Amino acid sequence: MIRVLLADDHAMFRSGMRALLDTQPDFECVGEAADGREAVTETARLRPDVTVLDVRMPRLDGLAATEAILSAPGNDTRILVLTTYDADEYVYRALRAGASGFLLKSLSPEELVAAMRVAARGDALIDPSVTRRLVEHFATSLEPRAAEPPELARLTSREREVLLLIADACSNAEIARRLQVGEETVKTHVSRVLAKLGLRDRVHAVVYAYQNDLVTRPNLK
Hints:
It holds the Pfam family Response_reg. This protein has helices at about 10-20, 35-45, 60-70, 90-95, 110-120, 130-140, 155-165, 170-180, 185-195, 200-210; strands at about 1-5, 25-35, 50-55, 80-85, 100-105, 125. It has about 220 residues and is α/β, with parallel strands linked by helices. The protein has 2 domains: about 1-125, Rossmann fold; about 135-210, 3-Layer(aba) Sandwich (Rossmann fold), CATH 3.40.50.2300. α2 (about 35-45) runs parallel beside α3 and α8 crosses α9 (about 185-195).
């Protein structure tokens, strides 16, 4: 079971999400919080697998709550940040704090549930609508390396292909379709790519690919 804590100052949103999770056989909603401070306290007390945080909440916003939760010793909860806003500064701060995902509430309920499963598995997920700007921010703020880093030689040709598809913001399902392999095979490849390159998650894999000029940098004109 994936144990979830819902933190949002809108009771109707929490109620709707709890009702949706109750229909899923692999989810258990273990608690709710109406503000950021309560989210920090309840996450420490209940130790859910995933805490879903709204960005804008009273007393402590979702980003500050993310930082507080993930800085606690022994914490292994994955944080999924949801918002109606897609301001870049929210994305950068959430990812710097260690959030596993940043998604817009405009997603369908089914997509939100799928995102919780992704976070619970330990993967990172960003709404596709903000992925390009994220790449632009990091790709243009980092100096490209003069030579290809030696750790890239550790990748097999297939793993390198997977890295390029990750950089193209492809999901595991999309990578599986393009390579005509199973999703479990893709997950194995992704895990090996991250391990061999010493990367924390898929987001950092995207940045790595751009920093090392493995893909064409975005045209910002």
